[in-house]
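[User]
Protein folding is very new to me. Any chance you could explain this protein sequence and its structure tokens? I have pasted everything here:
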Amino acid sequence: MTARSITDPAMRVRGLEKSYGKLGVLRGVDFDVARGSIFALLGSNGAGKTTTVKILATLLKADRGTATVHGFDVAAQPAEVRESISLTGQFAAVDEILSGRENLVFVARLRHLENPGEIADDLLRRFSLTDAGARKVATYSGGMRRRLDIAMSLIGNPPVIFLDEPTTGLDPEARIEVWQAIKELAEDGTTVLLTTQYLNEAEQLADRIAILHQGRIIVNGTLAELKQLFPPAAVEYVEKQPTLEEIFLAVIGGDDKSHALSTND
């Protein structure tokens, strides 16, 4: 790997446009995602989050614009992109009849990898599932199933992973378990693009946060940079920092509650 490839972003998106009939969903989307970082894409219902992820994962073709993932053009080199990524949707894609270990071994064999048992055992350790590895997934909690699902997506060591609403429907304890697993992915060098309806999830996890509104990225920065967009309010000599929710509502149009976040794009 050359020095240039190491320093280049894991994802680069320029002028991305996509319409469904007369409905323009993406209207010139631009952003970069640094290697080994967690990038959160926030947006209201219909903002285009899922459409963006589908284009980057080569499941959908853009009308205009360019995008590269791990150095490969999503339009011209889709096979290379697919070999470099993994996509985890809103619901855990695990087989409840099999044990956790059997799920992992099955996927490793499908990908024709050597030593599938060793791969499974390593991922069980990595996601704190060793004690539950022999149990059927039907007995797992929601957080355990989601962690197993993410573990399955890492078989083959993809450098880039897309997590689309990874904690939808989980209770607070399970969400924290999944948050820790996502943090460890980035610590190990995996690049994560995260879409989420939970603003505090982006606050907890993301190195950078982009807000997608009406088909365009209107804010893109670190949480600290986003907070600098709004002066703190001083109350009884205590400086009050704006929350990400306040920032989100302000940049997309104030107090209009019809912009509430949703899982459907």
In short: The longest strand covers residues 23-33. The radius of gyration is 19 Å. Residues 3-259 form a domain with the Rossmann fold fold (CATH 3.40.50.300). Residues 172-187 form the longest helix (16 residues).
